[in-house]
Amino acid sequence: MLSAKNIVKQYATHRALDDVSLEVEKGKIFGLLGPNGAGKTSLIRIITQITAPDSGEVFFNGERLSPKHISQIGYLPEERGLYKKMEIGEQVLYLSKLKGLHSAEATKRIRYWFEKLEMKDWWNKKVEDLSKGMQQKVQFVATVLHQPELIILDEPFSGFDPVNADIIKQEILELNNNGATFIFSTHRMESVEELCDNIALINKSHKILDGAVEDIKASYRSNTYWINFEGDYPITSNEIYEVKQVERVKNQTVAKLQLKDNRTANEALAQLLPHVSIHRLDEVIPTMNDIFIEKVKGQNHE
Prior knowledge:
alpha/beta, single chain
């Protein structure tokens, strides 16, 4: 759906994006990741046509990105933009009309979303009377109301308690199941694991990692396992595995073993089973948080 090719963006003496390219597939949830100041917001502002790249191109559904595509994009920025003194129903109606909806259709959709998200009594409230999380709900509705093909969410769970965060997560998944494509920018790596199909990691204005979440996690596997067993067998490194960590927990031994080249978990188990009673074996699968930290620290993150 969206293709950014060789994007460069310079602000005075700071290069925010340096030859960044990425592809967002239609119907997917794409995670745009990176530490503060990496260039994520600059890229989002180019996609939403708030600013333009100094060089490079962006394509939307195969066409060069242009003002006509604005109505097909929904954007929830990290910095909220609601008018504090304006009544909520009137405000969302105004924002929906900016996206091309007529009053009758917009009002119908607003009432649907307000009821769905338990906001039906909010129509005449003012933004300044709402909590941060409640304001976030209003802005989420304004973002998706015109049924955009591409929805860009920048830290969408900021200000939400766990219950409302889960409600919005379920709405994101439902919209995605109904065909909406998402670009999802967040620092919450657990949300990336739960929601994203693909990611790109930007650091210091460069893209340093991209691909399918499951493929990236698989590429960082190290053939390492946690094993819990009962017995007094002294576990030490040998020709099958290297012991990375070992401790006693109550009446069990908990050990972290890294298998050596071409060795298998079955071989490790075969060596241990005659001597101990094994209760659990778990492969150590790196999380996206682990991978994020490793990649960013590898670039001397400040």
